[in-house]
Amino acid sequence: MDHIVSLCKRRGFIYPGSEIYGGFANTYTFGPYGSELRKNIKDLWWKTFVQGRRDMVGIDGGILLHPRAWEASGHVAGFNDAMVDCKNCKARHRADHLIENALKVDAEGLSEEDLTKLIVENDVKCPKCGEKDFTDARNFNLMFKTELSKTKDDENIAYLRPETAQAIFLEFKNVVDTTRVKVPFGIGQIGKAFRNEITPGNFIFRLIEFEQMEIEYFIRPENWEPLFEEWLQEQHKWCEMIGLNKEKVSEYEHPQDKLSHYSKRTVDIMYDFPFGRSELYGLAYRTDFDLTQHQEYSGKKLEYRDPQTNETYIPHVLEPTWGVDRSILAVLCDAYHEEQLEEGDSRIVMKFAKCIAPVKVAVMPLMKKDGLPEKAQEIYDTLSQKWNVEYDDGGSIGKRYRRQDEIGTPFCITVDYETIKEDDAVTVRDRDSMQQERVKIEELGSWIEEHLL
Ligand code: ATP
After folding, report:
1. Less packed terminus of the chain by CB within 10 Å, N or C?
2. Whole-model pTM above 0.90?
3. Pocket test for ligand 1, best of 161, 190, 209, 210 (most atoms within 8 A of CB)
4. Atom of ligand 1 nearest to the CA of 197
5. Of all protein residues, whose CA lies closest to atom 9 belonging to ligand 1?
6. Is 112 helix (H, G, I), strand (E, B) or coil?
7. Residue 10 is inside which H or E element, if any?
């Protein structure tokens, strides 16, 4: 992990947030390459699941929703983590994580009383100071509260959304009334979510501000099982599309007695991160819980009328959900390779799937003279209309290759003397095989197009 974190900082993928002010814990800025990678992942997702499917549409809801929506969804009452404070060093810990780390037992979903009892009876120590003197476990809501400035009473409290899903339920009726969707259909959305996680960490794995790509897929209840399997396979296919090693991806079926209040079945897609196997994505069968709740709390009918049979009912919902930041982290971990080359040389290479690589092509004039830069600039101008291209003229070609390997650029194009004097062609070097090939300038665009697939 340390190598990846340091490469991310050194090469402009991810910087610690607000660094010039001494940092602001667990916040990050995605730098020039990180933001390209992020955008490519989101674009690919949208293209795959919204644009590419006839049964899907997209929306872009707000971060702020009516506060009653969060009462209806169960978040105000139930979106809690139980915490304990160390009375000696004042560190705050998530009670279930404290127990799981110390006793190696699953403590998720236990009551405040049971968590307190387990900690006391097993003499669990504070990981920070080693003392065994904790407060009782108490629930803290994970939602960020904010205040509207109209007047000073409670009605002006609003929440930053802890998940993007709820905006989709709130707009269910609008989407059905204004588009031609028919059950089964899905609504997809990409956007920021906020959780006041008390123990964020593992770089960008657990953040307080993160981004989700979510789908609510509306179905008839009797069809949920085969469609659940289909979505699970779609999520596996997605992992392959972004280049994740199949062997590092697995499933975790939530036991029936540990399911969230809204779910009848939940499967997590797990990834073997360097710090252990952890949740990458999730798939939940949320039944008709959310639409029923919003219908009750809003007093507005959220039923669907089947156009063929005229039957009205509240559709059930499958929810495949993807974290953008966890996708990026998995992609970074998977792509990172340290390779030994001939003659004691070595390289770090990020073997990103080409479709999400932040820079697709680097254009390099062999020398900064004799008309080579002008030719290289011309090629840059043409290719950059279509792809994110980098112009690199600093240092030896070998150094420039290493630099591009470290940011995972699939192809490096070198403009040399032969280019301008003899063949109007360039050398294209492949990131993974390091093989070189001569390609005519007029054929470069289609060559790259073909090889990026
Ligand atoms: P965890 O068990 O790790 O806390 P969760 O089960 O609460 O996650 P969901 O509510 O299912 O997560 O959220 C859907 C997806 O959003 C997750 O699969 C993950 O990719 C992402 N996600 C959730 N919480 C965070 C976070 N704090 N930081 C970054 N990504 C997150």
Report:
1. C
2. yes
3. 210
4. 27
5. 282
6. helix
7. helix 2-10
